[in-house]
Amino acid sequence: MKSKLPLSLLPLLFLIAAPFCLPTYWTFILSEILIMALFAMSFNLLFGYSGLLSFGQAGFFGVGAYSAALLLRHGGDSLWLLLPAGIASAALAAVVIGFLCVRRDEIYFAMITLGFGMMLFSIAHNWTELTGGSDGLPLAAIPPLRLPGLELSLFDPRNMYFFILAVVALGIFFLWRLVRSPFGLILTAVRENKERLAFVGADVRLVRLAAFTIAGGLAGLAGTLFCLFNSMATPDFMHWSYSAKPVLMTVLGGAGNFFGPAFGAAVFFLLEQLITSVTDNWMIFLGAILIPVVIFFPRGILGTLAGYYRERREKKQP
């Protein structure tokens, strides 16, 4: 009996083979898509699974980026130090901010996260002595990837790509295990009916704070990768417009669908590349595309297609 390759492995095989088949420019684009996919999936843990719309995720993304940049400028020369530092610093910021945010629901939660995100942006923009102000913190060098018996330079686009792919894959695997754990079921319960969950004795605020902290830490990991990828950290990483990116990607792909935000990130960047090759006013056309997506794909592109496929499969079963 012939064994068939699972369809779920095809995207992974494509990502592994891509840098050997595509031009260097597209290797850079794929690297950025991977980072933004992790960023969007961290947001989806809040929005898709917990029902919390955050407009401040870019703040934690920027905290991770600045943590990496500051460590590198003050003697840190190990990637195995930068990555945990980016996660820890962003998670710590998320604990403090989340403690105040999770007390509110819906639009109030969204507005509070937006306010705290802009506070972080203002600190990064105005604290010139620490953050470099509007100029940011450029990196003079990026430490090599040191493995047992091997040292790889990340200035090579292919090495940087595979490093990003490996880290993002670990982050996605962690999220996959998380949302399918008992904690993931509690998150879904919080989204569906937090009052009933509170009646059975669960601490809804603590569950939300845990989700907010984990999402912030993963956003910090994405920010650390983006800092290394761009060789700098700037206050723009913390601006509210950057927080809109994971929202758009999640809407495009499908909130609540595990791989929906990653699919949305790919669609977002491919549309950007396609439209900018024709006009500089690409945001106008992207907005025009988003309108029919929201109308005809209410669960996002991937979420709606997955639901349609699931319904057809259920109808075929006796």
Structure explained in plain terms:
- This protein has 318 residues and is mainly alpha-helical.
- It has a domain at 22-240.
- Helix content is 74%, strand content 3%.
- The protein has a two-stranded antiparallel sheet.
- Helix 3 (57-73) packs antiparallel against helix 4.
SSE order: HHHHHHEEEHHHEHHHH
Oligomerization state: single chain
Helix count equals: 13
The number of strands is: 4
The value of Rg in angstroms is 20 Å
Distance between the termini: 25 Å
* β-strand amount: under 5%
As a percent range, the share of helical residues equals over 70%
Q: Uncertain segments of ≥5 residues (pLDDT<50)?
A: 1-5
Overall pLDDT confidence: 87
| Overall geometric form | globular
Strand order of the largest sheet: 1-4
| Main sheet: strands, sense, barrel | 2 strands, antiparallel
Structural class: mainly alpha
How is this fold's topology laid out?
Elements: H1 9-21, H2 24-50, H3 57-73, H4 79-101, H5 106-126, H6 128-131, E1 137-138, E2 145-147, E3 150-152, H7 157-179, H8 182-199, H9 204-230, E4 232-233, H10 240-253, H11 260-276, H12 282-296, H13 301-316
Antiparallel strand pairs: 1-4, 2-3
